[in-house]
Amino acid sequence: MAQNSKKATINDVAREAGVSKKTVSRVINKSPEVTQKTYQKVEQAIARLDYTPDPQARGLSFRRSFLFGLIYDNVNTAFIADIQDGVLDKSRSEGYELVVHPCEHGNSQWIDEVRLLIDRLKLAGVIVLPPLSENPELVKMLKGVDCEYVRILSVPLDDDAHMVQSDDRSAVAQIADHLIELGHRNIGFIHGPKGSQAAAERYAGFSDALLRNKLKLLKRNLVWGDHSFASGVVGAHKLLGGKTRPSAIVASNDEMALGAMVAAAKLGIDVPSQLSIVGFDDEPQAAKIYPSLTTVNHNLKRMGQLASEKLAALCRNQPEQAAQVQSVICLDLIVRESTAKVPPEIQGNDN
Amino acid sequence: MAQNSKKATINDVAREAGVSKKTVSRVINKSPEVTQKTYQKVEQAIARLDYTPDPQARGLSFRRSFLFGLIYDNVNTAFIADIQDGVLDKSRSEGYELVVHPCEHGNSQWIDEVRLLIDRLKLAGVIVLPPLSENPELVKMLKGVDCEYVRILSVPLDDDAHMVQSDDRSAVAQIADHLIELGHRNIGFIHGPKGSQAAAERYAGFSDALLRNKLKLLKRNLVWGDHSFASGVVGAHKLLGGKTRPSAIVASNDEMALGAMVAAAKLGIDVPSQLSIVGFDDEPQAAKIYPSLTTVNHNLKRMGQLASEKLAALCRNQPEQAAQVQSVICLDLIVRESTAKVPPEIQGNDN
DNA sequence: GTGAAAGCGCTAACAT
DNA sequence: ATGTTAGCGCTTTCAC
CA A232 from chain center: how many Å? Predict the structure, then answer.
């Protein structure tokens, strides 16, 4: 419509519709106690004036903004972009804008900073990404403050209204099953950071599958990393340096799997004919190398969508509705080029 | 400090300091017309009450929020994460929070949507990422609206106060020089999307260097892509399919270079002994493959920092200061493993 | 240099 | 079912 000199306010609409300010306000807030007829009159006036309520003024009255916050650790940026994308999908359609807030890594004050952000901006709600979402102190703070939250997790640490959880454990079990089906018996594992529950969960899935298949969990087949590329390189070197090296390596995330691929290449070990490698996350680059990486699709975008859907419901004061939004995401095994049958010469060698 | 039951307001501070509301307001806004003494009294009261002004209320009066917007195309997510990181660095220290706004790709209404966002949230300023930043319609809209802006660009399309520019042209020239120095004479180029000025600039840098070195720009050595991985695969296949294939390939960005690496691997052409490949951007994955990719560091985080520094200055109404912040970024050639001397058997073959 | 009153655009509480 | 009054926390008049 014609861009009038000034933006229309609630007063203009009230005048135009011949009702009081408050009635317009009721319409804006979808109050049920307005006649069908008045409702329409107001709606038409709104349309005619091309009116949009001012979120700042509304917020001032409500003591609350129409902003969601995305709280994350600033380490793995590839990870957040996808979730952010999904979060935006839903939050904007629900009338919320998104403020991003990376927490300084290693700054012990980060919880206070998040509280300050919530206070200052009067955030309606926040979505917390792993690994911060695993932190019990943070959640304690969140519960004590007037701000809704939803956590994105790999472990069911909260009720359905407050989390979206990926079932990492069974996904890694799927990975192991896939390898076992290909004939692998001697499988190495590069573990994620100590302290991380997501990483622990992934290893649990690995051990589930091995035990179910009556395979031994060998100590020499487990090395520790920290989910960084570099730690994947180092971990793979350790695994591949022994006398009876594994015929397959499972890494707790794609970054480390990529590190393992590079380590194998430098050692002259061909993937997948001599060594299978699997990652976890399906980061964009997993498909953009040769051989492309077999991994598990984390559906990060979808998780972001579900999280903001839950959060919007919570902000509407409908926790039951939030709980009904899907909470657990099953992950898909994406078989690509980095896994193959176990090399015949070592078939049957299970130690 | 002790978290009192309610947040302190300007009234509490006024009472505590024994002055009027307005004087407190003057202190908050660093008005020069306040006595040194009063100033201190108020500052102390603020500290004692642990007071922070409410941005919403301030915004309502100012008709302006304390929010920056980050406007980007939702295609290349790896790209935005780094810039976002840099933008946050500076904007938060200047007292602004960041709202992110991806524009639906292919949606022709996107400029109107950006305007709506600015209007609704009364954004203090926006930072626009390429390729949207090249759009003259957008800039026209931005100039007509009460909102500061800074563009991130590869071409000098604006004055120093309103852009941060990377010198892509000379960076690609550096790349070409590097290859020529290694003995390459027959160099292929995978061009970026038609319409993109950044892509045109990069090719210009390539042609600069070749001409300066008295090498011919052969038509068969130029193929078109669109900065996607897939187009890099296709482009490299075209370049490598001919009788006298190039001994080196320059891609207009890393994504396409990664595509070229995969294409070469599938064709059984070894990189770098039989073929050198160079990218542009230094995306994280460029270093996480084997052979690792020689490329140009785009300094995205730094560009984000500079952009928000400029934007903050503009919002303070100090355009000269904004203009003085560094505007042009020089990029660094990062030599890794994907480039090597031209294979001896084809040395001297310049067509 | 400082303060009192009015108002930014909206909603809550209480009428009617 | 709708309107009136007061107020959210701050800044802008324009006095003094």
Answer: 22
